């Protein structure tokens, strides 16, 4: 706080002090004091009055400047008390104590919120693991059934529905863990072809049922990533392609390329492209937003707006750049960029 602003705030006490000085001058004049004595008295009163204001400003200046700096630099007001020192005047000590208590209460609330979030995430993970047990048992029962051709067809339909439920459970698990990816992933060198093949095998039944043909092109590269997380990400794209596949000749193409070889920006790009209904130009910038389904989502009631959100979130956590491109009616393309500089990853 500048001295001018401080003096402006002190105008009322200064006005009272001025009235006192004027009253003293009047009393001295009535008492017969000479003009020189009155002038000296006024001068002394003025000097000591201004000196008192300067001393009071000096006492408060350090604390006020610390508050100003904290207000400008701190993102959370809970830490204000850590950046200021307790002042030496009574009013400042009271203000400091209020800041300390407010900061402590805010930190306690943040800590409690984090604890509740961690407890909820742990519960979701526990629930997911418990819910997958009966699904696994159901799959075993289906595999051991023998019957007529119609029964086998119905069993196959039931198997696909069970697989869909299992994918949604997996999605809930990955969503719960997306806040703390670093606790559950390990970056290593993996074959890009093996990762794509694994994702395709995990979704083979649905691809066959939807008559979507997977195509792999130029995937003989190695990338730094986590196998489990990337296969989940690719699985989300495969399921989206199945959901919005065209009726005839549907396919999903996985292709790789090495770009900017020898440069600091050298990277391996994996492009996943389908020939489905695509996304409109108006919806494209928002496809990675949480809960956004767009025009296609209103047509296809099964859309949740979570799959691509998780794709973008997990890629961000793992240092993978992801972009989307599309034209309405001409398919949807997602491109992943894996840096070849392994020093940016944790091993």
Automatic annotation (TrEMBL):
It is a multi-pass membrane protein. The chain crosses the membrane at residues 12-31, 37-58. The keyword Oxidoreductase does not apply. Residues 126-342 form the Histidine kinase domain. One of its GO terms (cellular component) is plasma membrane. Pfam families: HATPase_c. One of its GO terms (biological process) is cellular response to phosphate starvation. Keywords: Cell membrane, Kinase, Membrane, Transferase, Transmembrane, Transmembrane helix, Two-component regulatory system. InterPro entries: BphY/WalK/GraS-like, HATPase_C_sf, HATPase_dom, His_kinase_dom, Sig_transdc_His_kin-like_C. PANTHER family: HISTIDINE KINASE, PHOSPHATE REGULON SENSOR PROTEIN PHOR. It catalyses: ATP + protein L-histidine = ADP + protein N-phospho-L-histidine. Its EC number is 2.7.13.3. SUPFAM superfamilies: ATPase domain of HSP90 chaperone/DNA topoisomerase II/histidine kinase. One of its GO terms (molecular function) is phosphoprotein phosphatase activity. It is found in: Cell membrane. This is Sensor-like histidine kinase SenX3. It comes from the Bacteria.
């Amino acid at each position: 706080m500048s001295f001018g602003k401080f003096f402006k705030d002190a105008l009322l006490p200064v006005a009272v002090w001025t009235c006192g000085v004027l009253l003293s001058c009047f009393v001295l004049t009535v008492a017969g004091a000479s003009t020189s004595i009155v002038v000296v008295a006024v001068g002394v009163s003025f000097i000591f009055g201004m000196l008192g204001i300067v001393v009071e400003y000096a006492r408060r200046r350090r604390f006020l400047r610390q508050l100003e700096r904290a207000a400008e630099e701190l993102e959370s007001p809970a830490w204000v008390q850590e950046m200021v020192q307790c002042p030496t005047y009574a009013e400042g000590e009271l203000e400091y104590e209020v800041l300390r208590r407010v900061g402590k209460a805010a930190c306690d609330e943040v800590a409690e919120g984090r604890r509740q979030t961690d407890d909820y995430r742990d519960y979701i993970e526990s629930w997911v693991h418990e819910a997958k047990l009966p699904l696994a048992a159901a799959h075993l029962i289906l595999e051991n059934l023998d019957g007529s051709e119609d029964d086998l067809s119905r069993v196959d339909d039931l198997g696909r529905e069970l697989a869909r439920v299992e994918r949604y459970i997996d999605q809930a698990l990955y969503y719960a863990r997306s806040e703390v990816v670093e606790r559950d992933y390990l970056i290593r060198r993996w074959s890009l072809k093996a990762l794509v093949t694994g994702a395709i095998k995990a979704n083979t039944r649905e691809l066959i049922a939807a008559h979507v043909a997977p195509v792999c092109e130029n995937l003989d590269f190695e990338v730094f990533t986590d196998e489990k997380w990337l296969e989940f990400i690719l699985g989300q794209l495969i399921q989206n392609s199945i959901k919005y596949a065209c009726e005839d000749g549907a396919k999903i193409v996985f292709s790789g390329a090495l770009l900017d070889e020898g440069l600091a920006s050298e990277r391996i790009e994996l492009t996943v492209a389908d020939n489905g209904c695509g996304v409109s130009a108006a919806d494209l910038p928002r496809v990675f937003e949480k809960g956004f389904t767009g025009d296609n989502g209103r047509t296809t009631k099964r859309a949740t707006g979570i799959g691509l959100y998780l794709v973008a979130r997990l890629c961000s956590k793992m240092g993978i750049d992801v972009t989307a491109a599309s034209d309405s009616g001409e398919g949807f393309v997602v491109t992943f960029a894996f840096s070849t500089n392994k020093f940016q990853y944790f091993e």
